[in-house]
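Re: weekly structure request thread

Next one in the queue (256 aa):
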Amino acid sequence: MKSFWIALAMYSKLPARRVEWDKKSLSWALCWFPAVGIAAGALLFFWLWLAQALGLGAPLRAAVALLIPIAVSGGIHVDGFCDTADALGSHQTREKKLEILKDSHTGAFAVFCCGVYLILFFAAWCQVETPSLETMGVLALTPVLSRSLSGLAAVTQPNARGSGLLATFTAPMDCAKAQVVLAVWIGSCAIAMVCLSPWTGGAAVLAAAGSFFYYIAMSRRQFGGVTGDLAGYFLQVCECAMVLLAALAQRAEVLL
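Done, posted below.
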Protein backbone atom coordinates (compact mmCIF):
# COMPACT_ATOMS: atom_id res chain seq x y z
CA MET A 1 0.00 0.00 0.00
CA LYS A 2 3.01 2.33 0.14
CA SER A 3 2.62 2.96 -3.58
CA PHE A 4 -0.95 4.12 -3.06
CA TRP A 5 0.03 6.61 -0.37
CA ILE A 6 2.90 7.92 -2.50
CA ALA A 7 0.53 8.49 -5.44
CA LEU A 8 -1.99 10.20 -3.18
CA ALA A 9 0.65 12.47 -1.65
CA MET A 10 2.25 13.32 -4.98
CA TYR A 11 -0.80 13.87 -7.17
CA SER A 12 -3.36 15.28 -4.73
CA LYS A 13 -3.89 17.49 -1.71
CA LEU A 14 -5.84 14.76 0.06
CA PRO A 15 -4.58 13.53 3.46
CA ALA A 16 -2.02 10.76 3.00
CA ARG A 17 0.10 8.64 5.32
CA ARG A 18 3.78 9.47 5.43
CA VAL A 19 5.69 6.51 4.02
CA GLU A 20 9.23 5.90 2.81
CA TRP A 21 9.68 6.52 -0.91
CA ASP A 22 11.73 3.40 -1.59
CA LYS A 23 12.44 2.04 -5.05
CA LYS A 24 9.94 -0.80 -4.83
CA SER A 25 7.09 1.50 -3.78
CA LEU A 26 7.94 4.07 -6.45
CA SER A 27 7.85 1.36 -9.09
CA TRP A 28 4.09 0.93 -8.60
CA ALA A 29 3.06 4.46 -7.59
CA LEU A 30 2.01 5.53 -11.09
CA CYS A 31 -0.38 2.57 -11.29
CA TRP A 32 -2.31 4.17 -8.42
CA PHE A 33 -2.58 7.53 -10.19
CA PRO A 34 -6.16 6.72 -11.36
CA ALA A 35 -7.16 6.26 -7.71
CA VAL A 36 -6.73 10.02 -7.26
CA GLY A 37 -9.26 10.35 -10.07
CA ILE A 38 -11.67 8.14 -8.14
CA ALA A 39 -11.50 10.55 -5.19
CA ALA A 40 -12.10 13.53 -7.47
CA GLY A 41 -14.88 11.66 -9.28
CA ALA A 42 -16.64 10.74 -6.04
CA LEU A 43 -16.70 14.38 -4.96
CA LEU A 44 -17.84 15.39 -8.43
CA PHE A 45 -20.69 12.87 -8.39
CA PHE A 46 -21.81 14.05 -4.96
CA TRP A 47 -21.76 17.67 -6.09
CA LEU A 48 -23.79 16.99 -9.24
CA TRP A 49 -26.34 15.06 -7.21
CA LEU A 50 -26.50 17.79 -4.57
CA ALA A 51 -26.82 20.57 -7.16
CA GLN A 52 -29.72 18.73 -8.76
CA ALA A 53 -31.40 18.00 -5.42
CA LEU A 54 -31.18 21.66 -4.43
CA GLY A 55 -32.25 22.89 -7.86
CA LEU A 56 -29.11 24.99 -8.34
CA GLY A 57 -28.58 26.79 -11.62
CA ALA A 58 -26.16 25.72 -14.31
CA PRO A 59 -23.51 28.43 -13.67
CA LEU A 60 -22.94 27.50 -10.01
CA ARG A 61 -23.10 23.78 -10.77
CA ALA A 62 -20.59 24.26 -13.58
CA ALA A 63 -18.19 26.43 -11.59
CA VAL A 64 -17.89 23.96 -8.71
CA ALA A 65 -17.73 20.94 -11.05
CA LEU A 66 -14.85 22.62 -12.87
CA LEU A 67 -12.99 23.39 -9.65
CA ILE A 68 -13.33 20.04 -7.86
CA PRO A 69 -10.64 18.08 -9.80
CA ILE A 70 -8.37 21.13 -9.74
CA ALA A 71 -8.77 21.47 -5.97
CA VAL A 72 -8.16 17.75 -5.38
CA SER A 73 -4.92 17.89 -7.38
CA GLY A 74 -3.80 21.15 -5.79
CA GLY A 75 -3.61 22.77 -9.20
CA ILE A 76 -0.47 20.90 -10.29
CA HIS A 77 -1.99 19.88 -13.62
CA VAL A 78 -3.14 23.42 -14.36
CA ASP A 79 0.44 24.51 -13.67
CA GLY A 80 1.62 21.97 -16.24
CA PHE A 81 -0.97 23.26 -18.70
CA CYS A 82 0.29 26.82 -18.27
CA ASP A 83 3.96 25.84 -18.63
CA THR A 84 3.16 23.89 -21.79
CA ALA A 85 1.16 26.80 -23.22
CA ASP A 86 4.18 29.06 -22.74
CA ALA A 87 6.48 26.53 -24.39
CA LEU A 88 4.21 25.90 -27.37
CA GLY A 89 3.54 29.60 -27.82
CA SER A 90 7.24 30.42 -27.93
CA HIS A 91 7.78 28.69 -31.32
CA GLN A 92 11.37 28.08 -30.25
CA THR A 93 13.60 25.05 -30.77
CA ARG A 94 12.87 21.81 -28.94
CA GLU A 95 15.67 22.47 -26.46
CA LYS A 96 14.40 25.97 -25.71
CA LYS A 97 10.86 24.68 -25.23
CA LEU A 98 12.11 22.18 -22.67
CA GLU A 99 13.87 25.02 -20.85
CA ILE A 100 10.64 27.03 -20.82
CA LEU A 101 8.82 24.08 -19.25
CA LYS A 102 11.24 24.24 -16.31
CA ASP A 103 10.98 28.02 -15.94
CA SER A 104 8.91 28.95 -12.88
CA HIS A 105 7.89 32.31 -14.37
CA THR A 106 4.46 32.70 -15.97
CA GLY A 107 4.42 34.10 -19.48
CA ALA A 108 1.74 35.83 -21.53
CA PHE A 109 0.79 32.66 -23.41
CA ALA A 110 0.16 30.83 -20.13
CA VAL A 111 -2.14 33.54 -18.82
CA PHE A 112 -4.04 33.85 -22.08
CA CYS A 113 -4.42 30.11 -22.69
CA CYS A 114 -5.40 29.39 -19.09
CA GLY A 115 -8.10 32.06 -19.25
CA VAL A 116 -9.45 30.72 -22.55
CA TYR A 117 -9.32 27.16 -21.24
CA LEU A 118 -11.25 27.95 -18.05
CA ILE A 119 -13.91 29.86 -20.00
CA LEU A 120 -14.32 26.98 -22.46
CA PHE A 121 -14.40 24.34 -19.72
CA PHE A 122 -16.94 26.37 -17.73
CA ALA A 123 -19.09 26.79 -20.84
CA ALA A 124 -18.90 23.04 -21.52
CA TRP A 125 -20.14 22.27 -18.00
CA CYS A 126 -22.93 24.84 -18.41
CA GLN A 127 -24.10 22.96 -21.51
CA VAL A 128 -24.54 19.72 -19.57
CA GLU A 129 -28.27 19.21 -19.18
CA THR A 130 -29.66 18.31 -15.75
CA PRO A 131 -27.93 14.93 -15.58
CA SER A 132 -29.45 11.57 -14.75
CA LEU A 133 -27.65 9.34 -12.27
CA GLU A 134 -26.14 7.46 -15.23
CA THR A 135 -24.78 10.66 -16.75
CA MET A 136 -23.46 11.74 -13.37
CA GLY A 137 -21.61 8.45 -13.24
CA VAL A 138 -20.10 9.04 -16.67
CA LEU A 139 -18.93 12.53 -15.74
CA ALA A 140 -17.57 11.31 -12.41
CA LEU A 141 -15.40 8.77 -14.23
CA THR A 142 -13.73 11.37 -16.46
CA PRO A 143 -10.96 12.16 -13.92
CA VAL A 144 -10.24 8.44 -13.61
CA LEU A 145 -9.95 7.88 -17.35
CA SER A 146 -7.77 10.95 -17.92
CA ARG A 147 -5.31 9.87 -15.22
CA SER A 148 -5.25 6.28 -16.49
CA LEU A 149 -4.37 7.49 -19.99
CA SER A 150 -1.76 9.87 -18.61
CA GLY A 151 -0.12 7.02 -16.74
CA LEU A 152 -0.13 4.84 -19.87
CA ALA A 153 1.58 7.58 -21.86
CA ALA A 154 4.23 7.92 -19.15
CA VAL A 155 5.18 4.24 -19.36
CA THR A 156 4.98 3.86 -23.16
CA GLN A 157 6.47 7.12 -24.45
CA PRO A 158 10.06 8.37 -24.21
CA ASN A 159 10.87 10.88 -21.51
CA ALA A 160 11.77 14.15 -23.24
CA ARG A 161 14.40 15.02 -20.63
CA GLY A 162 15.44 11.64 -19.31
CA SER A 163 15.23 13.16 -15.83
CA GLY A 164 12.81 15.09 -13.65
CA LEU A 165 9.90 14.13 -11.44
CA LEU A 166 8.21 11.94 -14.04
CA ALA A 167 11.43 9.98 -14.49
CA THR A 168 11.60 9.47 -10.72
CA PHE A 169 8.40 7.45 -10.96
CA THR A 170 8.97 5.70 -14.30
CA ALA A 171 12.67 4.77 -13.98
CA PRO A 172 12.22 2.01 -11.37
CA MET A 173 9.04 0.63 -12.96
CA ASP A 174 8.52 -2.67 -14.72
CA CYS A 175 6.92 -0.92 -17.70
CA ALA A 176 5.42 -4.09 -19.16
CA LYS A 177 3.50 -4.86 -15.95
CA ALA A 178 2.56 -1.22 -15.48
CA GLN A 179 1.12 -1.09 -19.00
CA VAL A 180 -1.12 -4.06 -18.22
CA VAL A 181 -2.35 -2.51 -14.97
CA LEU A 182 -3.05 0.86 -16.57
CA ALA A 183 -4.71 -0.80 -19.56
CA VAL A 184 -7.06 -2.55 -17.12
CA TRP A 185 -7.86 0.80 -15.53
CA ILE A 186 -8.56 2.31 -18.96
CA GLY A 187 -10.63 -0.61 -20.22
CA SER A 188 -12.69 -0.89 -17.04
CA CYS A 189 -13.36 2.83 -16.96
CA ALA A 190 -14.27 3.08 -20.65
CA ILE A 191 -16.60 0.07 -20.48
CA ALA A 192 -18.32 1.42 -17.37
CA MET A 193 -18.86 4.81 -19.00
CA VAL A 194 -20.39 3.31 -22.14
CA CYS A 195 -22.57 0.91 -20.14
CA LEU A 196 -23.85 3.75 -17.94
CA SER A 197 -24.84 5.83 -20.96
CA PRO A 198 -24.01 4.77 -24.53
CA TRP A 199 -24.43 8.30 -25.87
CA THR A 200 -22.67 10.47 -23.29
CA GLY A 201 -20.33 7.72 -22.17
CA GLY A 202 -19.36 6.81 -25.71
CA ALA A 203 -18.80 10.47 -26.59
CA ALA A 204 -16.61 11.01 -23.53
CA VAL A 205 -14.52 7.93 -24.32
CA LEU A 206 -14.13 9.10 -27.93
CA ALA A 207 -13.01 12.52 -26.71
CA ALA A 208 -10.48 10.92 -24.36
CA ALA A 209 -9.07 8.77 -27.16
CA GLY A 210 -8.76 11.77 -29.49
CA SER A 211 -7.05 13.82 -26.76
CA PHE A 212 -4.65 10.96 -26.05
CA PHE A 213 -3.51 10.58 -29.65
CA TYR A 214 -3.16 14.36 -30.01
CA TYR A 215 -1.04 14.40 -26.83
CA ILE A 216 1.28 11.68 -28.06
CA ALA A 217 1.72 13.24 -31.52
CA MET A 218 2.22 16.75 -30.15
CA SER A 219 4.65 15.67 -27.41
CA ARG A 220 6.83 13.70 -29.80
CA ARG A 221 6.84 16.39 -32.49
CA GLN A 222 7.33 19.42 -30.25
CA PHE A 223 9.36 18.01 -27.34
CA GLY A 224 10.68 14.59 -28.32
CA GLY A 225 8.65 12.82 -25.64
CA VAL A 226 6.58 13.40 -22.51
CA THR A 227 7.31 15.26 -19.27
CA GLY A 228 5.40 15.91 -16.06
CA ASP A 229 4.25 19.30 -17.33
CA LEU A 230 3.01 17.81 -20.58
CA ALA A 231 1.13 15.17 -18.60
CA GLY A 232 -0.65 17.96 -16.72
CA TYR A 233 -1.46 19.70 -19.99
CA PHE A 234 -2.97 16.48 -21.32
CA LEU A 235 -5.12 15.94 -18.23
CA GLN A 236 -6.70 19.36 -18.52
CA VAL A 237 -7.30 19.08 -22.27
CA CYS A 238 -8.69 15.56 -21.94
CA GLU A 239 -11.13 16.39 -19.15
CA CYS A 240 -12.43 19.47 -20.94
CA ALA A 241 -12.88 17.51 -24.19
CA MET A 242 -14.77 14.72 -22.41
CA VAL A 243 -17.24 17.08 -20.75
CA LEU A 244 -17.71 19.04 -23.99
CA LEU A 245 -18.45 15.98 -26.13
CA ALA A 246 -20.67 14.49 -23.43
CA ALA A 247 -22.74 17.69 -23.43
CA LEU A 248 -22.97 17.65 -27.22
CA ALA A 249 -23.98 13.98 -27.14
CA GLN A 250 -26.82 14.83 -24.75
CA ARG A 251 -28.16 17.33 -27.29
CA ALA A 252 -27.73 14.91 -30.18
CA GLU A 253 -29.57 12.17 -28.29
CA VAL A 254 -32.55 14.50 -27.75
CA LEU A 255 -32.61 15.58 -31.38
CA LEU A 256 -32.44 12.04 -32.69
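The longest helix spans residues 228-255. The mean pLDDT is 88.
Next request, please.
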